[in-house]
Amino acid sequence: MSLDISITRSTKPRPKPPANDLGFGRFFTDHMFLADCDAGTWSNGRVIPYGPLALDPAAAALHYGQTLFEGMKAYRAKNGRAMVFRPQLHAARLNASAERLCMPSLPEEDFHRALRALLELDRDWIPGATGTALYLRPAMVATEPFLGVRPARRYTFFIIASPVGNYWGPKPSALRLWVETKAVRAAQGGIGAAKAGANYVASLLTAEQAKAHGYSQVLWLDSTHTHVEEVGTMNVFFRFGETVVTPPLDGSFLPGVTRDSVLQLLRRWKVPVEERPVAMSEVAEAYDRGELKEVFGTGTAAVISPVSELTWGSRSLRLEDRRGAVAERAFQALTELTHRGEPDAEGWLVEM
Ligand SMILES: Cc1ncc(COP(=O)(O)O)c(C=O)c1O
User: Fold this and answer.
1) What domains can you pick out in the chain, each with its CATH number?
2) pTM for the structure as a whole
């Protein structure tokens, strides 16, 4: 049986933020969606005015990290409705994260109905300009007040929405990445592939240290510090000569929806592409031979971001300060697709 959803409209609509200065995650829409889960059964779906959650201080999420989230984007359709990019993959990944973190799964149909219910009320918040979107943040937290260490029995699922511009600010430049050789973000067999809050807190200290030295983000390696995994909030691609290579999904980093989309585009375009382990030594050797043609990150928030520098121990590999040919083609294709305001042949945009 699908979840019942009640609607309570806000009586105090907020002013819309300036379209040219959205930044990322600074503004929130008028409403939010919530639903509760008790012993595996979801109920009380509701869209209500955006506001604070009441949590018992003993709620398991606050102590043992049973929290997960998703991140996806809605674009404005020509007919005034919302178009959400690949929501099925986000629903599937939410449930994969939930399984790993001993949290309840949410039926995909309820995930879609929840998105629809929220977008029905907050559709006006979808910014129209190219490069902007309404970022949707579904999340699940354990709410049961209980201090013993075991999976909680009660959870709240919620979706909030934020009109966003470019993740890297109004004038994004290519990224300078710090290749981390001591700390690890996640290990094989751990929770690295789940979109768990814990993976992000594990990355903060190193990211702050990198930022203090002028780097934009960290390029994380595996726990032996040999092979490349991902960037702080993006998956990573390398072009060696004509071949584009990205690390295979090994369970220790996030299976990105943008990564999957870029792989599909490259295969459609007959660009040679390989999903295989990439050793940092291979990257440096390719650079020395002049074969490292481009490096770029992919993610919902950042779309496709070129990398202009990789600092790995005493080595500094420098690339052009703009998107290379493959990154540019993929960026243009995704931007055109998401901003065309109509369904696409692939069915990646879902009207809501
Ligand atoms: C750690 C991490 N890796 C990769 C990605 C890219 O995933 P996606 O393309 O699904 O946004 C993200 C962004 O959500 C992320 O946070």
Assistant:
1) 5-165 (3.30.470.10), 175-338 (3.20.10.10)
2) 0.97
